[in-house]
């Protein structure tokens, strides 16, 4: 794997120096630039391809969270901050990690390993169709496609329900986005809120799809599914 192109943004010069020192310890990371000014950093990110962004959350001109939200193409994100209460905002933006200052080299190393694992997973996901990788609760989860029963949309999030598992996996992703990652031969959308595994369909009756554990409605805009299934 080629080295990940990195940028670090922090209004504290000492914090940036520590990040520069730590990044230099890892041959899999290539530091392109550091910025004390968040606005300048945002402009650089909008004009250059960056794989990984280390960014402080609490900055004077624009917060790290708002800066990340403003990016059309988001790199992998690791937030840094001196405050514990920003953790949920990092989760909302699918940050890979959340580093609390002062950052030790040991903790930074663990974060880099998490990032590298994610990058490898993304590459592997493009190369095969048997698994789906999703980001949930600050970690990557590998899901075997054969274990998925159905997927439910919850506005900006989706819940992935697995066979023989009570608790679904929650991840920040649209139903449309996850459907693009799934093979059409194995999964189908039956409602604006539901995608089901074809192999788990037991019967269809009165515009309802019966699976192993639940019955789901067929949406009005997905009536073709019933006709095609009955052929």
TrEMBL record:
Source species, domain of life: Bacteria
InterPro entries reported for this sequence: CheY-like_superfamily, LytR-like, LytTR_DNA-bd_dom, Sig_transdc_resp-reg_receiver
Modified residue annotations for 4-aspartylphosphate: 56
Gene3D superfamilies listed in its UniProt record: 3.40.50.2300, LytTr DNA-binding domain
Keywords: Phosphoprotein
GO MF annotation: an example: phosphorelay response regulator activity
SUPFAM superfamilies documented for this protein: CheY-like
Annotated Response regulatory domain residues: 5-116
Domain HTH LytTR-type span(s) in chain numbering: 132-204
Designated name of the protein: Uncharacterized protein
Organism for this UniProt entry: Mucilaginibacter polytrichastri
């Amino acid at each position: 794997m080629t080295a990940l192109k990195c940028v670090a943004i922090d209004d504290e010069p000492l914090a940036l120096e520590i990040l520069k020192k730590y990044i230099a310890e890892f041959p899999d990371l290539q530091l392109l630039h550091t910025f004390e000014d968040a606005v300048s950093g945002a402009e650089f990110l909008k004009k250059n391809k960056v794989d990984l962004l280390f960014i402080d959350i609490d900055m004077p001109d624009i917060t790290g969270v708002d800066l990340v939200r403003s990016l059309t193409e988001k790199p992998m994100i690791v937030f840094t901050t001196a405050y514990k209460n920003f953790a949920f905002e990092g989760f909302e933006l699918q940050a890979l990690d959340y580093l609390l200052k002062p950052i030790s080299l040991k903790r930074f190393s663990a974060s880099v390993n998490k990032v590298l694992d994610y990058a490898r997973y993304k590459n592997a996901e493009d190369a095969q169709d048997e698994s789906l990788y999703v980001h949930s609760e600050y970690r990557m989860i590998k899901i075997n496609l054969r274990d998925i029963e159905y997927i439910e949309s919850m506005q900006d999030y989706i819940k992935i329900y697995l066979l023989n598992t009570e608790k679904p996996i929650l991840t920040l992703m649209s139903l449309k986005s996850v459907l693009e990652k799934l093979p059409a031969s194995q999964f189908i959308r039956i409602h604006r809120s539901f995608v089901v595994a074809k192999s788990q369909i037991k019967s269809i009756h009165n515009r309802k799809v019966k699976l192993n554990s639940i019955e789901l409605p067929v949406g009005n805009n997905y009536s073709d599914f019933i006709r095609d299934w009955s052929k």
